[in-house]
Amino acid sequence: MADRFPLVVNSTTNQITEVMSGDDLLFDSTDLKTSTGNLVLNPAADVDIQQDIVNSTGNVKVDDELEVTGRLALGTTVGAGTDLRINRTWNNNAVTFMGLDMDITPTALASASRLVRLRNTGVDKFTIDVDGNTRTFGTLTVDGATTLSSTLNAVGAVDFDSTLNVDGNTTLVGTLGVTGATTLTTLTTSGDITVTGQATFTSAIDANSTLNVQGISTFQSNIVPSTDEGAGLGTSALPWAAAHIGEIEIANGTTGNDDNTITTATGDLFLTSAGGDITITGRVQMTSSDSDNNLTITSTDSTADIGPDLILYRNSSTPADDDGLGSIRFTGNNDLGVEQLYARIYSRATDVTDNTENGKVFIDVIDGGNNVNAMEITSAQVTIGGNLVVNGTQTVLNTTTLSVEDNTVELRRGNNLTAADGGIQVNLTTDANGASTSSQQLIWDNSASSWRTGDVVGNTTNYSSLVTEARDNDITGTLTVHSMLEDADYVTGSAATGTINFDAKGRNVLWYSQNATGDVTLNFRGDGSTTLDTMMDATEILTSTFVIPNGTTAFKVASVTVDGSAPTAVQWANGSAYPAGTPSGTDVYVFTIIKTGANAFTVLASQSTFS
After folding, report:
1. pLDDT value at 583 more than 70
2. Please, which of 72, 139, 254, 552 could form a disulfide with 228 given CB 3.0 to 4.6 Å?
């Protein structure tokens, strides 16, 4: 080494400008100092510094890697058991200080790259990735207020003694304990969460394990289930005894399904309000597989008031006459499986004027596919659109007057009836129990085949018969007729000629309007199915009138028969049998028929001429 010069010194500046290749520069118990400027060390290999590096005015700059194999202290003496220690005093308000400042530009990197990684025996305990995501693998205890503007992911237990504010997504695999008020934008946990203070969630909570909230929890956004339609409150073994819920909004599932269901694991679902009211806004649809007891409203009121009651309230801000108030509709499927309205009950406010309000109830049914009004009800009347059928044993009408607009009042309507008595009874007096003590009856006496009137007092009835076309008995007692009109058949469509049947049932006069065209044989009978002999008893008398007009050629009654046969005798007034007709006049024949025995009749006849 005596013939070598490892150092090259500039003769003008007296500076060492070069160290010969292959030689080392060793300062043994000697300081390396510069009076001014920087000390630049840029060897090809490592610089092994075993003593202090001191620069009183400038910086110590290392352009290559700086490897510290021992303990490192900046601004202080390293303490026992401490690997890295930084000790500085910040005392300038105009300076922005950085205790530890790392600025990495990752132009190309693997996905597992981390800005900060703390390990224990090769196992990660704390990491910060290139996006700023921070992850702790053990228990995180924070004594002061904590605000995270991005994501918090905790694999182990995290305990905050004060407030925790997280603006980003929060994922917990372990336990999160927060003593103060807590605001989480999004929380995802697979472990336990215990919040002893007030927790405010501005977004969703995704809890894979137990969420235990001991204080008040305010959800400003959503509680999101882990899967579509897969969330529950409580369990079958430990249900909620009392849930105080402000507002719950059920959004669409991830599949866009608008049908959302609240289902109990077992047993019934109870909704109880301390104030007594449960208000539901929107439509309510109930579905049950049972055929009865689908909707039950129970009142536990012990007074005599009416209850429970069902109110259909039309809360209109502009009420007007004939507004619809409410409707109960009865629907079912037709044979094509299409839902069809079959009946409904609804109401209208016919008058909404204060203190003079009126209402009406309607009942509609479907008939032949068309909606038909079956009944209208007001305070004044009940109108039934169809037939009224009462199947009870008694119908009581507490009205002053019963008005019937039908032409016929039918009694004893039914299938396979047999003949029986029937009629109308007018009660005159009743006892204290409403039972009749005296009355008047108009009844059909089936055994006598006649109409009768009855005077009923107690159990005694005194009957009197009325005259009918097919009567078999005379009227009992005295019949006083103040005025009588006879029934006549007035024939306008044809002229009298040949054999003419005079049906005695229902008429006493047969009158032709057109001039006769031939002589007439007049046959007296009951009707087409009843003989006069059957209709009359012996000694009974029938008086009939026959009227025919004549033209210039006169015709007459040339023959008289009874039931198609000649009578026993025909006797004419004035002794002239079958007198001739009157030309251009009207002949009126009067026949008095006397039944003298079985099929035996005497006819007393007369003719009068009018011209």
Report:
1. yes
2. 254
